[in-house]
Amino acid sequence: MKKEQSGFTLIELIVVITILGILSAFALPRFAALQTDARMAKMNGALGSIKAAAVLAHSIQLTQNLGVNTSVTMEGSVITMGNGYPLATNASIGHAAGLSTLAGVAFPEYILNGAAGVFTVAPDAGYPACTITYTEPAVNGSPIYSNGNVNATNC
């Protein structure tokens, strides 16, 4: 009795490896773009959270007939206000938006910076130019929100 061996020839294996190499060359840039898209979505989500927190804090202040510079309590946390909206600090708008602790310590998913009336959020240290901003309002004004730096080049 003679047994026949079956398997792949060397040429067949080389052809399969070549095809896989070509497919991966096309797939890899698409996966890189997905990371950029995910980072941009993360930042736009953070901006939405900041907008919602600012409007909610403002509405609490209005419904309770508080002065424009009087702090409000949101879910048991005191949020410091200025001109009717949260101040541009980690402990104020950062905490109200769920991006930091009440003490102003940023959660590890974000890099926060609140200085000179402007609150800036970046996704991580590797992409410092991919930012959103919240600017405190002037008297009788509204805050200014920006996601102009959230694009494929920066993120």
Total domain count = 1
First-residue to last-residue Cα separation: 66 Å
Tally of helical runs: 2
* Helix/strand order, N-terminal first: HEEEEHEEEE
Taking the sheet with the most strands, its summary is:
4 strands, antiparallel
- How would the global form be characterised? elongated
Radius of gyration: 25 Å
Mean pLDDT equals 92
Structural class: alpha+beta
Count every beta strand, where a strand is a DSSP E run of 2 or more residues: 8
Give the strand content.
15-25%
Can you list the strand order of the major beta sheet?
A: 5-6-7-8
Helical coverage, percent range? 25-40%
| Regions with little confidence, pLDDT below 50 for 5+ residues | none
Could you give a quick summary of the protein structure above?
Helices cover 39% and strands 17% of the residues. It has 155 residues and is of the alpha+beta class.
Note down, in words, how this protein is organized.
It is a single chain. The strands form 3 sheets. A 4-stranded antiparallel sheet has the order 5-6-7-8, covered by helices on one side. It has a two-stranded antiparallel sheet with strand order 1-2. A two-stranded antiparallel sheet has the order 3-4. A hairpin with a 2-residue loop joins strand 3 and strand 4 (about 85). The chain is elongated. It is built from 2 helices and 8 strands; from the N terminus they run αββββαββββ. By secondary structure, the protein is α+β, with helices and mostly antiparallel strands. It has helices at about 10-65, 90-95, and strands at about 70-75, 75-80, 80, 85, 110-115, 120, 130-135, 145. It has one domain (about 10-145). Helices cover about 40% and strands about 15% of the residues.
